[in-house]
Write a structure and sequence with these properties.
The chain is built from five helices and three strands. It is mainly alpha-helical and about 150 residues long. Helix 1 crosses helix 5 and helix 2 packs parallel to helix 4.
Length: about 150
C-alpha cells in the first residue's frame, strides 16, 4: 500500500497509519510512505518504485494535495495510469472539504461516503469508517487474485 499525501496533511497521515495497524497485523496490508526514504536516497526514484509495486494507492485528499505539483502531477498521474491498467486500486480519502469534483480522480469512489474527517462525530469514527472501507477493498483484491 502506497500513501500519497501533502506534507501539510502529515498529522492525518500519521493518524491513518495508526488506524491501519490492525490490517497490517492481520497480514492483509503493508504500507509505505515517503517518510521511509533514507538520507542520500534519490526520493523521486524511490517514490516511483514504491508506487509502481503497490497494489493499493491511498490518496489523502485536501486542497494542499490538489495544489501539490508533486502529488497531483507525479504520484496521482502514475497511480491513475496503474488503475486504468488494472494493476492497482486507487482509493481517495477526503481529509478536508475541497473542490475535488473538478479533478482527474473525480470518477473514483471515495471511502467513508466522501465525508471529510472533520465532519464526523470524532476523528476516530472517521478513521474507523475509512479503514473498514480499505479492508473491504483489500479483501476484494485478495479474493480476485486467489481466483486467478
Amino acid at each position: 500500500m502506497f500513501i500519497s499525501y501533502s506534507h501539510a496533511d502529515k498529522a492525518d497521515k500519521i493518524a491513518l497509519v495508526k488506524h491501519l495497524e490492525p490490517l497490517r497485523l492481520l497480514g492483509l496490508i503493508s504500507q509505505w510512505n515517503d517518510q521511509e526514504i533514507k538520507a542520500g536516497e534519490r526520493f523521486d526514484r524511490i517514490i516511483l518504485e514504491q508506487l509502481g509495486v503497490a497494489d493499493i494507492v491511498l490518496l489523502l485528499i485536501s486542497i494542499d494535495f490538489i495544489n501539490s505539483e508533486y502529488c497531483y502531477n507525479k504520484e496521482l498521474t502514475e497511480a491513475l495510469e496503474r488503475e486504468e491498467l488494472g494493476s492497482a486500486r486507487v482509493i481517495p480519502i477526503l481529509l478536508r472539504e475541497c473542490v475535488w469534483q473538478y479533478t482527474s480522480f473525480k470518477g473514483l469512489q471515495m471511502v467513508a461516503e466522501a465525508k471529510p474527517i472533520d465532519q464526523w462525530p470524532s476523528r476516530d469514527a472517521a478513521f474507523k469508517a475509512i479503514v473498514q472501507d480499505i479492508k473491504k477493498a483489500a479483501d476484494d483484491m485478495l479474493s480476485r487474485s486467489q481466483a486467478r
